[in-house]
Write a structure and sequence with these properties.
This protein is mainly α and 466 residues long. It has 18 helices and six strands. Helix 3 packs across helix 8 (214-220) and helix 6 runs antiparallel to helix 7. The mean pLDDT is 95. The structure holds arginine (ARG).
C-alpha cells in the first residue's frame, strides 16, 4: 500500500513520503510559479491536440481546457495555494485541475512528460523575454538617436587610453552605442528565430506511441515547427544559454556606457548633467548628486554574466537526456532577465533625460593637443612629408607647446618654422577642432555629415518617429 504522504503524482511505487530536506532540495515551485501562464497555455494546446487526434474525448478536453482557465485566474488573482509537496508548477496546476474537474484531469498527461512540458514552458517564458529585450533595446536606440541628432556637430574630445586623442562629435559618440545596441538587437532576434521550435510531444525522451500531432501544438503555441529530435528537445537548454550570453554582451555594452556617464557627470568633466529623476543625493554631503543608476547598471553585468557562467557549468557535463540538474536553469535566467530589462529601462530613462553640456564638451575638445594628427596630416598633404617624418615634426611642436604651457594653435609661426622651415600660415586652418571633425569625411568617420547619414540609416532601420 502506498503511504498517504507519498507523492500523489508519482508516488505509486513509494512506501513513504520524502524527508523534509529532500522536499526542500527537490522543489522548484518557489520560483517556477513564474511560468504558470506558459504551463497552462502549453497544457491547453496539448489537450486540444489530444482530442483532435482522438486520444481523449472532446468533452474531457473541453473540461480540461476550461478548468485550466479557472486555475489560471486563481493564480492571477493571487488565490492559488502553491504546495511544496507538489514540487513544481506542472504538478501544482494539474493537482488543482483535478480538484476542480475531477477524473478528466488525469488524462491531460497522456503522451507527454514533465520533461517536454518544462522545456516548452521555459522556452515560452524565454521567448517572451526576448521580445521584451527587443522592445527595450529599440527604445534605448531611439533615445540615443535623439541625443545624436541634437548634437550631431557638437565637438568633444575623443579618447584612447582615456587620454585625449582626437576631437570627435557628440553625435558620433552616441552613434557608437547605437551600433553596439543594434548588434545586441540582432542577436536577440537571431536567438528568438533559432529557439522557436516546440519541444512539446517529445515526452520523457523517446517520443510517444500515442498518435499525437506535434505540428498542431507547435502552431498553437506560435512555434515555427516541432523540434526534430526528442532526446535533444528535452535536454536542450541552448536557448537559455543564448539568452544569457546575449544578455551578457548587451550588459557589457550597458556597463561601458554607464561607466562613461559616471565619468562624464563628474565635476571634473561636466560633459553631461543627469536629471534629478535618475540621480540620488548623499545623506551627509548636501552638494552631492550621484549617478547611482549608472553605477548599478555598470554592476548588473556581474550578476548577468554570473548567471551565464552558472548555467554553462550546470549543462556542461550532463549526459542525454533530462537530468534534474536542469531545474537549476530557471533562477539564473529569471534573475538575469529581470535585471537586464531593468538596466535597459534605466539606461533609456537616463539617456532621454540627460543634457549634454555643449560648452564643456567644446572646451575639452581642444585640450590635450587634440589636433596634433591634423597638423601631421597637413605636413603630409601640403609639404609632401612621409607620415612618419610628419609625426616626428609634430611631436617636436607638441613638446614646444608643452614647455610654453600653450595649445598647438597658440604656437607662433616662428615656433612652427623653428622645427620645419617650410611651414606656412595655412597650417592654422587645420588646428581648430571644428576643422578637424569636419575633415573626417571617410565613411563612418566623425564628420557631422557622416554622423547624420548614419542617424538617417538607423532611423529607417528602427522605424523612428520622435
Ligand atoms: N521541475 C522540473 C524542472 O524544472 C520539471 C521536470 C521534472 N522532470 C523530472 N523527470 N523529474 O526541471
Amino acid at each position: 500500500m502506498t503511504d498517504q504522504s507519498s507523492n500523489q503524482m508519482w508516488g505509486g511505487r513509494f512506501a513513504a513520503g520524502p524527508d523534509a530536506i529532500m522536499e526542500a532540495i527537490n522543489a522548484s515551485i518557489g520560483f517556477d510559479q513564474r511560468m504558470a501562464a506558459q504551463d497552462i497555455a502549453g497544457s491547453r494546446a496539448h489537450a486540444a491536440m489530444l482530442a483532435a487526434t482522438g486520444v481523449i474525448t472532446d468533452s474531457d478536453a473541453q473540461a480540461i481546457r476550461e478548468g485550466l482557465l479557472t486555475v489560471l485566474s486563481e493564480i492571477e488573482r493571487g488565490e492559488f495555494k502553491f504546495s511544496t509537496a507538489l514540487e513544481d508548477i506542472h504538478m501544482n496546476v494539474e493537482a488543482r485541475l483535478k480538484e476542480i474537474i475531477g477524473d478528466p484531469a488525469g488524462r491531460l498527461h497522456t503522451g507527454r512528460s514533465r520533461n517536454d512540458q518544462v522545456a516548452t514552458d521555459f522556452k515560452l517564458w524565454v521567448r517572451d523575454q526576448l521580445d521584451a529585450a527587443e522592445s527595450g533595446l529599440l527604445a534605448l536606440i531611439r533615445a540615443l538617436l535623439a541625443q545624436a541628432e541634437a548634437g550631431a556637430d557638437w565637438v568633444m574630445p575623443g579618447f584612447t587610453h582615456l587620454q585625449t586623442a582626437q576631437p570627435v562629435t557628440w553625435g558620433h559618440h552616441m552613434m557608437a552605442y547605437v551600433e553596439m545596441f543594434g548588434r545586441d538587437l540582432s542577436r536577440v532576434r537571431d536567438a528568438r528565430t533559432r529557439m522557436n521550435e516546440s519541444p512539446l510531444g517529445a515526452a520523457a525522451l523517446a517520443g510517444t506511441s500515442f498518435p499525437i500531432d506535434r505540428q498542431m501544438t507547435a502552431e498553437a503555441l506560435s512555434f515555427d515547427r516541432p523540434a526534430a529530435n526528442s532526446l535533444d528537445a528535452v535536454s536542450d537548454r541552448d536557448f537559455a544559454l543564448e539568452f544569457l550570453s546575449t544578455a551578457s554582451i548587451c550588459a557589457v555594452h550597458l556597463s561601458r556606457f554607464a561607466e562613461e556617464l559616471v565619468i562624464w557627470s563628474s565635476a571634473q568633466f561636466r560633459f553631461v548633467t543627469l536629471s534629478d529623476r535618475f540621480s540620488t543625493g548623499s545623506s551627509i554631503m548636501p552638494q552631492k548628486k550621484n549617478p547611482d543608476a549608472a553605477e548599478l547598471i555598470r554592476a548588473k553585468v556581474g550578476r548577468i554574466f554570473g548567471a551565464n557562467t552558472a548555467l554553462m557549468m550546470v549543462m556542461k557535463g550532463l549526459p542525454l537526456a533530462y537530468s534534474k540538474d536542469m531545474q537549476e536553469d530557471k533562477e539564473q535566467v529569471f534573475d538575469a532577465a529581470d535585471n537586464w530589462m531593468l538596466a535597459l529601462a534605466a539606461m533609456e530613462g537616463m539617456v532621454k533625460d540627460m543634457t549634454a553640456n555643449r560648452e564643456s564638451l567644446a572646451s575639452a575638445a581642444g585640450s590635450g593637443f587634440s589636433t596634433a594628427t591634423d597638423l601631421a596630416d597637413w605636413l603630409v598633404r601640403v609639404l609632401g612629408l612621409p607620415f612618419r617624418d610628419a609625426h616626428h615634426v609634430t611631436g617636436s611642436l607638441v613638446a614646444i607647446a608643452e614647455k610654453k604651457g600653450c595649445d598647438l594653435p597658440d604656437l607662433t609661426l616662428e615656433d612652427m618654422q623653428s622645427v620645419k622651415s617650410e611651414i606656412t600660415d595655412d597650417v592654422y586652418s587645420v588646428l581648430t577642432v571644428e576643422n578637424s571633425v569636419h575633415s573626417r569625411q571617410s565613411y563612418g568617420g566623425t564628420a557631422p555629415d557622416q554622423v547624420r547619414a548614419q542617424i538617417k540609416r538607423w532611423k529607417a532601420l528602427v522605424g523612428c518617429e520622435y
